[in-house]
């Protein structure tokens, strides 16, 4: 038997694998299933992006440079300038990523330093599991900052004591938030950035859903907090441009940290293929397809929000393609999720998959097409009606 490192040995199975098992079983039993589980968009990638990918394939294939193509860094900083009004130097503030997940996972390895007393990563919970998994892989302790409805699904940063902040290597925030759909006001990001500089940790702001907003104005970025020191923002084409399979994102912000990541990355080999970078350039340079994408999700949101309003089921969130739905009658979230699959052929993610703090909710990822959403809403209408009259 091979010996595995504790980081690998102790890793819990990815909770969505369990959903996948249930899904396969339902499909094998010949059931129709509509899958609102994983946040993998089923919207088509716009044709002009696919064309740029195909045209980007060169006769001779070379290793991509760790810093990415100059044109891509330029396209990213141009987008940041237009979207957030922040002028960045593409050569010092911006680094393309092979999708954002790889950096969300690996950032802790770059900044956790137990010998220097930096042995802690702070994450929000319920949450995307990767920041915590990356922290554990880096040998760090994890402090989970709970998000709840009364706090607007924002962490209470004032409740963390100075000794904890002094141990902190990274504070992860993710707004618009997966799974709650909450948006953080700029003041919250400013407070977090100020703490990062005061106590010498990194504020890592995962902004993967920044372009999927449905109420109020466009959500702010940590890049707008007025000072880039100790602050990085991470973003991706996966959700905004329906490009999950391309694997293309960026990290931008503190030049020391971005520079350090650039130095490490040739050893890891995680730069996107150049043809993906070519496709990414045209994607960052176009907003029309993002607006169409937002409209498509808005239509799907309306279908479900109307349905849940009719049944008095509370739904949180004003952004992302997730609905964070309170489980009726206080049932355990896994039980309701399995019941929806069993009786309605609908896959949703139980809140408990995002940590115990997510109990009492399920997450609906509005990734199937509008027609499937309408079909699913009709099924839910029947199920909720029956539950109420039972
Ligand atoms: C909060 C959050 N961050 C990052 C990602 C990773 O996106 P990608 O690696 O496709 O860029 C996801 C994916 O679901 C996510 O939900």
Provide a descriptive summary of the structure in words:
The protein has 390 residues and is of the alpha/beta class. It folds into 2 domains: 6-45 and 289-389, Aspartate Aminotransferase, domain 1, CATH 3.90.1150; 60-285, 3-Layer(aba) Sandwich (Aspartate Aminotransferase, domain 2). It has helices at 6-9, 15-28, 47-55, 70-84, 101-111, 130-137, 162-167, 186-199, 237-240, 255-268, 274-284, 288-310, 333-344, 370-389, and strands at residues 34-35, 94-97, 120-125, 141-146, 168-173, 202-206, 231-236, 249-253, 315-316, 322-326, 346-347, 349-350, 361-365. Helix 5 (101-111) runs parallel beside helix 6. The mean pLDDT is 95.
What is the first-to-last residue Cα distance?
Answer: 54 Å
Count of DSSP-assigned helices: 14
Q: SSE order, as H and E?
A: HHEHHEHEHEHEHEEHEHHHEEHEEEH
CATH architecture of the largest domain: 3-Layer(aba) Sandwich
Spans of at least 5 consecutive residues whose pLDDT stays below 50 are none
CATH superfamily of the largest domain: Type I PLP-dependent aspartate aminotransferase-like (Major domain)
CATH class call of the largest domain: Alpha Beta
User: What would the average pLDDT be, to the nearest integer?
Assistant: 95
Bin the helical content. 40-55%
Secondary structure category:
alpha/beta
Shape: globular
Gyration radius (Cα, Å) is 21 Å
User: What number of structural domains do the residues give?
Assistant: 2
Return the CATH topology of the largest domain: Aspartate Aminotransferase, domain 2
